[in-house]
Write a structure and sequence with these properties.
Mean pLDDT of chain B: 87
Structural class of chain A: mainly alpha
Family (chain B): Belongs to the binding-protein-dependent transport system permease family.
Protein name (chain B): Sugar ABC transporter permease
Keywords (chain B): Cell membrane, Membrane, Transmembrane, Transmembrane helix, Transport
Low-confidence stretches of chain B: none
CATH class of chain A: Mainly Alpha
Order of helices and strands of chain B: HHHHHHHHHHHHH
CATH topology of chain A: MetI-like fold
Number of strands of chain B: 0
Structural class of chain B: mainly alpha
Number of strands of chain A: 2
Oligomer: heterodimer
CATH superfamily of chain A: MetI-like
Number of helices of chain B: 13
Radius of gyration of chain A: 25 Å
CATH architecture of chain B: Orthogonal Bundle
Mean pLDDT of chain A: 87
CATH class of chain B: Mainly Alpha
CATH topology of chain B: MetI-like fold
Shape of chain A: globular
Low-confidence stretches of chain A: 1-24
Largest interface: A-B, 125 and 123 residues
Subcellular location (chain B): Cell membrane
Strand content of chain B: under 5%
Pfam family, one (chain B): BPD_transp_1
CATH architecture of chain A: Orthogonal Bundle
Number of domains of chain B: 1
Number of helices of chain A: 16
Distance between the termini of chain A: 20 Å
Chain lengths: 332, 297
């Protein structure tokens, strides 16, 4: 969902900041008397944010404590003993750090690059085929996986990969190749995870780029055609250069999220199998398992904070770069 | 003339696209086929695109022993989706409206108050403690609704929409006619914003329908499982299916020779069936919405 809406925000924020220049030089109470009704519309959202976003920020003390569970939030937080940076040091020295950082960043980099290449090429292909009706049908089908939950995707993967699954019984066995135990062997998972990431996400990216192509100035193509340029030349010299700014900005913004992964993909598709950790464990699943399986609240919170801080600087930095390239695309 | 690709290229590109389309469809077809395959032929020949021996046994088994459990999960999912989506729309539309007004002095504060939460968060652990210890949401139906009823992304989409489509003159003339802000909002602004609201509604509804995350974190009671969480638990452990059956003692004996592989896949079909069937009708709103928000004019 966050990828789905990232660009929308970009758009929303850009247009928002321009208008807030002229302000009245009147006091707080004057403003409230005048616009009280309007301000009251902020109340439900503000309460939500206070409870679900700001109150948890008080919990940022958790990584610095040895948490002993008690019944109330405040005593869990404040009656526990301070341990300084112990939890961070523990994480820093553990072999887990390298593994989850490598997996998180590695998968994100591969998926960003591959996602861009696939989305742009499929969008161009859909735009170019002659029969508009089949283009529409292809697009509809490719977008469908986007609507299925990760749990369902886990089932679909299982149908192919289980010992009884299609790959083992339908392909390998007839050729006399030995059965592969996918759910116990980590080495296959980079391919599987990357495949399903794009299986589910491609349709979305295609729509974005397809719309961008549809919005391009057609007179450029007409002029090029009159000058004798082939359609292939038009694609290479007009269409792709025109798409470039969008490709750059969307990629840069995606890089902002490089420290967080799609939990659903990495948790549901490998069925959270511990033996697959080497290639399937990312920061998000690590934080989840530390909290829910091993019950190590402080460690989980420490890694979570580590991720939040890295993510914060990444987004701010990336936004700064995007602003340098194209001021319009700046988030704030 | 160079206005379209050549006939041969057209064929090649079509083949390429058809391969991709098949890749998208085949996993679903495989699950569908397995769910209609006889259990013994599943065990002998494995999963295949063509049922070795056709059987409706998995569905019959589920109808007999798990109908009430499935209906209950549907009921929970539908309740969460409807209530969650309505609340989200109300919260988002309300917060975004004053943000879109140029004459509010403290708009910057409220923009930042929201925007900061999109940049930085306390993380999962404190969030979990707030949900369980402060709000007592563990094993409550509201656990699957309340934590998701607000969304910063949608607020900014909504604000942009208000700003770009609602003429300021309309608001001013309504004010001159003596309408209050709430009346203007509900009777003028909202009806004019239906396209944006429809888009956000579909996104939100799909999010609630597909949600397994909140029950995973906060629900243990099988009676409160939504569809996704039910099939998540059955995937992890087929025995969990007992917790969704009418009579826990009877099934304990019959599960031993039940078509368990087929049951799993039938469960998946029962869950995704409705989405796959209504998707073609919703698709165009989705596409429209994506392009409203994402593409700059």
């Amino acid at each position: 969902m966050s990828k789905a809406t990232g660009e929308m925000v970009a758009n929303g924020l850009i247009q928002g900041t321009k208008a807030e220049s002229k302000q009245r030089k009147k006091g707080f109470f004057f403003e409230m008397r005048r616009h009280g009704a309007l301000y009251s519309m902020f109340i439900p959202g503000a309460i939500f944010l206070l409870i679900f976003a700001y109150l948890p920020m008080v919990g940022l003390v958790i990584p610095f404590k040895y948490i002993t569970y008690s019944n109330s939030f405040w005593s869990t937080l404040f009656d526990s003993e301070w341990v300084g940076f112990y939890n961070f040091e523990f994480f820093w020295d553990s072999p887990d750090l390298y593994r989850i950082m490598r997996n998180t960043i590695g998968y994100n980099v591969i998926n960003i690059v591959l996602g861009l290449v696939i989305a742009v090429s499929v969008a161009i292909a859909l735009n170019e085929i002659r029969n508009r009706k089949s283009a529409k049908t292809y697009q509809t089908i490719m977008f469908m996986p986007y609507f299925l939950s990760w749990v369902i995707v886990g089932y679909l993967a299982y149908a192919f990969l289980s010992p009884n699954g299609f790959i083992n019984m339908g392909i390998l066995k007839p050729f006399g190749i030995e059965e592969i135990s996918f759910y116990t062997d980590p080495k296959y998972w980079p391919f599987i995870l990357i495949f399903f990431a794009h299986w589910k996400g491609t349709g979305y990216g295609v729509i974005i780029y397809l719309a961008a192509i549809a919005g391009q100035d057609q007179s450029l193509y007409e002029a090029a055609a009159i000058d004798g340029a082939s359609r292939g030349q038009q694609i290479r010299k007009i269409m792709i250069p025109l798409l470039k700014p969008m490709m750059i900005i969307l990629t840069i913004l995606a890089v902002g999220g490089i420290f967080s992964s799609d939990f659903g993909l990495f948790y549901n598709v490998p069925l959270n199998q511990g033996v697959l950790k080497e290639t399937t464990d990312v920061i998000n699943t690590y934080v989840y398992n530390a909290l829910m399986s091993s019950g190590d609240i402080s460690l989980s919170a420490a890694v979570g904070l580590f991720q939040s801080v890295l993510g914060f600087f990444m987004v701010v930095g990336v936004n700064w770069i995007a602003g340098k390239i194209d001021p319009e695309s700046k988030l704030f | 003339m160079g206005t379209s690709i050549s006939r041969t290229t057209n064929v090649i590109v079509n083949v390429f696209l058809i391969v991709l389309v098949l890749l998208c469809l085949l996993p679903i077809v495989l699950v569908l086929s397995v769910s209609f395959t006889d259990e013994t032929s599943l065990l002998n020949q494995g999963y295949s695109f063509f049922p070795g021996k056709f059987s409706i046994e998995p569905y019959r088994f589920l109808m007999e022993t798990n109908l009430s459990g499935i209906l209950n999960a549907y009921k929970i999912t539908i309740f969460n989706t409807v209530v969650g989506t309505l609340l989200t729309l109300l919260m988002v539309a309300l917060y975004a409206y004053p943000l879109s007004r140029r004459d509010l002095k403290y708009n910057n504060f409220f923009t930042f108050f929201l925007y900061f939460t999109m940049l930085f968060g306390g993380g999962m652990v404190p969030w979990y403690l707030v949900c369980t210890q402060v709000l007592g949401l563990k094993d409550s139906i509201w656990a699957m609704i309340l934590p998701s009823i607000f969304n910063g992304f949608f607020v900014f989409v909504m604000r942009t929409f208000y700003k770009s489509t609602i003429p300021i003159e309309v608001l001013e003339s309504a004010k001159i006619d003596g309408a209050g802000e709430y009346r203007i909002f509900f009777q003028l602004v909202l009806p004019l914003s239906l396209p944006a609201i429809a888009t956000i509604a579909i996104f939100t509804a799909v999010g609630f329908w597909n949600d397994y995350w909140l029950p995973l974190m906060l629900i243990n009671d099988p009676k409160l499982s939504n569809l996704q969480y039910m099939i998540y638990r059955i995937m992890t452990n087929i025995q969990a299916i007992r917790e969704y059956s009418q009579d826990a003692s009877g099934i304990a004996t019959s599960l031993a020779n039940a078509p368990s592989e087929g049951i799993r896949m039938a469960m998946a079909m029962i869950t995704m069936g409705p989405i796959v069937l209504i998707y073609p009708f919703l698709q165009k709103y989705f596409v429209k919405g994506l392009t409203i928000g994402a593409i700059k004019g």
